Amino acid sequence: MFWTLQHIVFIVALVGYTLATAYTDTFRWKIPNKLTIPFFVLGLVYQTVFWGLGSWNGLLDSHGLIDGLMGFGLGFGMYFVLWIVAGGGGGDVKLMGSLGAWMGFKLTFWLIITSLVMVVIDGIVVTMFKAMTMGMKRFKKQHLATGKVDAKGKPIFAKETHSEKRKRRILPFAVPVAMAVWLVMLTNAAGVIKGGQLGPAKVQQQPQVETTE
């Protein structure tokens, strides 16, 4: 495969961004707006510069600014609904929206599926590891209840503080998302996912010259 400037910009941007958000979500417990909002804007700039305003060939075969906006709408909208229904962090919603602006509708669709699978797999692995290293009693106290008990040792299910919620979190959301982004990029570059941002380079059609015999 011939790598173009567009491919290189896309890979470097997404790898750098996902590493940065995974770091902040792991060690600072948040994904700041100063990362997500500029990356969203840069995603629209990237789409416009390399693909133009857009070419519409259906939801799963489009490029350009239109595709970036659709990818943002899919990523942000899907996780906004999950945030409203199941709770979570607003930074997670903005993370998926900003990634969607770069990846477009098709790759964002695959990212959502892959990220959900990675969350389940990573969650199971981390849960088993913590349960074995901490012991089941300590693990259940920290992650399955608030950790507060009454005089008889029974759990008190009181409203948790922000710091208590942090202690109960099994895995930062940005970590499995980063893994999912890398996996989607790899499969797209390998041709498993057709088209997309890492598919064949955009070919400029040469004007046909009529020849006379």
Describe what this molecule looks like in 3D:
With 213 residues, the protein is mainly alpha-helical. The chain has a domain at 5-114 and 174-189. The chain contains seven helices and no strands. The chain is elongated and about 65 Å long. The two termini are 38 Å apart. 31% of the residues are buried.
Structural class: mainly alpha
Along the chain, the helix and strand elements come as: HHHHHHH
Task: Give Rg in angstroms.
Answer: 22 Å
Shape: elongated
Count up the helices: 7
Helix content: 55-70%
Distance linking N and C termini = 38 Å
Number of strands: 0
Low-confidence stretches: 203-208
What kind of oligomer do you see? Answer: single chain
- On the 0-100 scale, what is the average pLDDT? 80
Largest sheet: none
Percent of residues in β-strands: under 5%
Q: What's the arrangement of secondary structure elements?
A:
Blueprint: H1 5-27, H2 33-51, H3 65-86, H4 90-134, H5 136-143, H6 162-168, H7 174-189
List the keywords.
213 residues; elongated; 7 helices; mainly alpha
Q: Short summary of the structure?
A:
The protein is built from seven helices and no strands. It has 213 residues and is an all-alpha fold.
